[in-house]
Amino acid sequence: MKKSLVLFAGGLCVSACMGSASTSASDGSGAPSSQPETAPPAHGQADPSAQEAAAPAPVDPWERQVFFGEQHLHTQNSPDAFAMGTRNTVDDAFDFAKGKPVKKIITGETVQKATPYDWCAVTDHAEYLSVMPLLLQEDSPLADTEMGKLIAAGKGEDAFHLIISSAAANDPIPYMSDPKLMRKLWKEHVETANKH
């Protein structure tokens, strides 16, 4: 859009400068020019040279399109969102963005956009990415950890404080940042995103 405005403003400036050239001398004195003037257009007719000079330069239509989307969306894979109750998945997020009906896991309510987004960015936090859902799986060793017990007890705010404290101190929680586990979860995350 800025490029279009700059081109348009440039066209007006050129037009204004061209219009003043015929009324002043080339020496900048402001005295009438000795060059002959052309006859004004007939009554009711527009001066074609003025229209051409005032018209903005054509702009590529791709530079003028507006796209609507979501630039900051968290799912259950983001530790802060999970600690505060989010249980919907990355698939749910992309389906919602595409205009498909999605059931909210916590409330059971079905939501659907009237108009799909043109684009969507799922921006789950990298710290403990995709680990949080494992805390509620009964067969997961993470369910018996301090964090797992807090989440299971509905103490999401306390869990959130542990997460923030570890991130702020650059002191990862060992059982939630195991490199082997993180590689596995990252691979799953990429596969899910690539489906969409």
Structure notes:
The chain is mainly alpha-helical and 196 residues long. The chain folds into 2 domains: 1-19 and 43-65, no CATH class; 71-195, no CATH class. It is built from 7 helices and 4 strands. The chain has helices spanning 2-21, 48-54, 79-83, 90-97, 146-152, 156-168, 179-195; strands spanning 69-73, 102-103, 110-111, 119-122. The strands form 2 sheets. A two-stranded parallel sheet has the order 1-4. The protein starts with a helix and ends with a helix.
Structural class: mainly alpha
Distance between the termini: 29 Å
Query: Uncertain runs with pLDDT below 50, 5 residues or more?
Result: 1-33
- Biggest β-sheet, characterized? 2 strands, parallel
Task: Specify the overall morphology.
Answer: elongated
Main sheet: strand order: 1-4
Give me the oligomer status: single chain
Task: Figure out the total of helices.
Answer: 7
Number of strands: 4
Let me know the average pLDDT: 81
Element-level helix/strand string: HHEHHEEEHHH
Amount of helix:
25-40%
